[in-house]
Amino acid sequence: MLVDNELYPGTPMSLHCKSGSKDLGLQILNYQESFYWDFYDGRLWVTKLYWCSMRWRDGKGRYNSNSFVIYDQDKRYSEPMYRCDECRWTARGDGIYYFWDGKYVRAYQWNITA
C-alpha cells in the first residue's frame, strides 16, 4: 500500500492507518512524500481491512479531513478501488484518489471545517 501527499508545496498532511489488529501510527507526510506498508506475504492477504484518516490545513486555515476504508479484501473483486496488487492512493487539493487502469480516480472529497 502506498499513500502519497500531492496536495500543495509546503503543505504537510497527517495520515493514520490501521486494521483491526495493527495500528500503523500517525505519519506526517510533507508535500511529495509517501508512506508505504505491506500486508501481503506472497501467498495470502494477511489483513482483510484497513482504514485511514487524512488531515491537512489549507491556505485559509481550514482543516480538510476524511476517514475511509483504504482496502477491503471482501470487495477486492467487486470494486475497482480495492482491485490492486500494489494499491496506490494520493491526496490532492480536491480529494483523495486511487490508482486504477493507468490513471488516478477520485474516490473521496474533503470534509472542511474551520
From TrEMBL:
Q: Which domain of life is it from?
A: Eukaryota
Family named by the database record: Belongs to the plant self-incompatibility (S1) protein family.
Source organism per entry reads: Coptis chinensis
Q: What Gene Ontology cellular component terms go with this record?
A: extracellular region
- Location of this chain's protein in the cell: Secreted
Q: Does the keyword Metal-binding apply?
A: no
Keywords from UniProt, A to Z, are: Secreted, Self-incompatibility, Signal
In this record, what's one Pfam family?
Self-incomp_S1
One GO biological process term: rejection of self pollen
Which InterPro entries does this entry report, sorted A to Z?
Answer: Self-incomp_S1
Q: Does the keyword Magnesium apply?
A: no
Q: What is this protein called?
A: S-protein homolog
Q: What is its main location?
A: secreted
